[in-house]
Design brief:
heterodimer; A: 303 residues; Rossmann fold; 11% strand; B: mainly alpha
């Protein structure tokens, strides 16, 4: 089925692009809605026919995977949901993968957010992943959602010395002093790994500047593709790894599927979205080439 | 006094925050923690101020029937409905019960998330249109940018066959060498600029934050 879809989508796109090329080269205007239609088709068909592509983890992704994998079971991993719904389709596959991987390895997971929207998205992740897939994990023992606090990087400045100054309770109003997972935890410095998922402000950069670097805490993260090149300067010193956009999420998912039989049938939104993204990229590239060809032809005609 | 007092406060607290970084002593840490607590409190007041400002601006728009005033009704309705549900129908103000409120969760998951995701997704269409109309090799620099963009996009493409590892290697080089060098230069430049601006604010040379009055 996916082969038929692939052939169909490539066929439709190639024929359409040829028509567009001829039209552009003859100097006729290509309406914006035709371009929109092409993008719509190149995204919709792969989704309908479930076209996926195989992925292999690159070193920048493997760095995070190996870190989570090599930490002794019961290590403390903090996942910060620093994004909103607009970014969720792109970065949620990353936070989902981090959460699954950390829990499967038996680590203790602390969920928080520097974005107000992160609290609900963290709670949604607990409902979607932890409760159905890890029913043996107990809230307050194996994982906890401490939610959001206003203050952006100021929050990090406080919790790097004392969590309880900022967070007296978790999102359910349970006193942090009464939960098992928070025993022997005073500040961020007690975490074995911080995973920040985001792509805006505050985000990974703030975690580097105000938590990981001053506290000497291992940090990794996942970021929206547009923000990823801005974060490369922090890799590999301040960031042990970075998932860039859907591609990064897909690589992480493929690594999990390869190494964990229990994740063979897990939802893989990252891998699923690589098909539409690849075809959409091809169409955008074709548009750039066609646009430039028509530009040079028009220039020559003028001469 | 109206101007001198804020300037003096900025000077004192600004320098206090700089100095405490260089004094590894418990008193210094205490000062830092104390001032951070103040920052949190001020942050909460800013939230209240934002709420008031949004309500006032939207309400004025509705009252005066300014262009697109209908959207302001939606803004106000969204704001107060989410507060109503978030405080569990105004029954619980000091506990987190509201975050489990059925309507609060459903409004968030089935209205806020799809709306924002849709708005962000629309970018793909506009990027494609812009790529066709504006991304032209008009000069050497524009051509370099265009080639770099194509290589980076091709890196993701699994249909390139034997060319894919070469593209991957080339794109990694592009990201790790020229991009990284430029980005690090920008980061250092921005950092130095921020230090200079902060010093100007602390020393009272830059006073725009005080307003016009």
């Amino acid at each position: 089925m996916s082969d038929i879809g692939l052939i169909l989508s490539i066929g439709v796109i190639v024929v359409g692009l040829l028509w567009l090329t001829i039209r552009s080269l003859t100097g006729r205007e290509v309406e914006r809605r035709i371009i929109f239609l092409f993008i719509g088709i190149s995204v919709a068909i792969p989704l309908l026919f479930n076209i996926t592509v195989s992925e292999k983890a690159t070193p920048i992704v493997k760095g995070i995977y190996d870190k989570v994998e090599n930490l002794p079971s019961g290590s403390k991993i903090l996942i910060s949901f620093d994004y909103g719904p607009s970014m969720a389709p792109e970065v949620e596959p990353m936070s989902d993968a981090f959460l699954r991987h950390a829990l499967a390895k038996g680590h203790k997971v602390f969920i928080m957010g520097l974005w107000a929207t992160g609290q609900s998205l963290g709670a949604a992740a607990v409902d979607k992943i932890v409760k159905p897939e890890f029913p043996d994990k107990v809230d307050g023992v194996d994982y906890i959602n401490i939610g959001y606090k206003a203050g952006n990087q100021g929050v990090l400045n406080v919790i790097i010395t004392d969590f309880r100054k900022m967070y007296a309770t978790d999102v359910n109003g349970v006193d942090l002093d009464s939960v098992e997972i928070f025993e022997n935890i005073r500040s961020l410095k007690d975490m074995d790994l911080i995973l920040c998922v985001g792509g805006g402000f505050p985000g990974i950069k703030e975690w580097v500047l105000f938590a990981a670097d001053p506290g000497n805490i291992p940090l990794a993260g996942g970021s929206a593709a547009v923000a990823t090149p801005l974060l490369y300067p922090y890799y590999p010193k301040q960031l042990i790894g970075l998932l860039g956009g859907i591609k990064g999420a897909a690589e992480y998912e493929s690594e999990m599927k390869k190494n964990y039989p229990r994740f063979a049938d897990m939802p893989t939104p990252g891998l699923n979205m690589m098909g539409p993204q690849t075809l959409a990229h091809m169409v955008v590239m074709a548009f750039i080439v066609i646009g430039n060809l028509s530009f040079f032809f028009a220039k020559r005609r003028k001469k | 006094m109206k101007r001198q007092l804020p300037l003096a406060m900025v000077f004192i607290f600004g320098f206090l925050m700089i100095i405490q970084y260089f004094i590894p002593h418990e008193y210094s840490e205490w000062v830092n923690a104390f001032l951070m607590d103040w920052m949190m409190i001020i942050g909460v007041f800013a939230l209240a101020l934002g709420l008031w400002s949004l309500t006032r601006v939207s309400w004025d728009k509705v009252r005066q029937k300014k262009p697109n005033w209908g959207y302001s009704i939606v803004t106000l309705a969204g704001l107060f409905l989410m507060m109503f549900f978030g405080f569990d129908y105004f029954r619980h103000f000091s506990t987190a019960v509201g975050s489990d409120n059925y309507m609060y969760i459903h409004f968030y998951r089935h209205i806020v998330i799809p709306i924002q995701a849709t708005m962000f997704s629309l970018l793909a269409f506009f990027i494609a249109s812009a790529a066709y109309r504006a991304f032209r090799a008009r000069s050497l620099l524009a051509t370099l940018l265009l080639v770099a963009a194509l290589v980076i996009m091709l890196r993701f493409n699994p249909f390139l066959g034997p060319l894919q590892p070469i593209m991957e290697e080339f794109s990694v080089w592009l990201l790790n060498v020229p991009n990284l060098a430029a980005k690090r230069a920008i980061v250092i430049g921005v950092g130095l600029g921020m230090v200079a601006t902060a010093l100007k604010v602390i020393l009272g040379i830059e006073r725009a934050y005080l307003g016009k009055d």
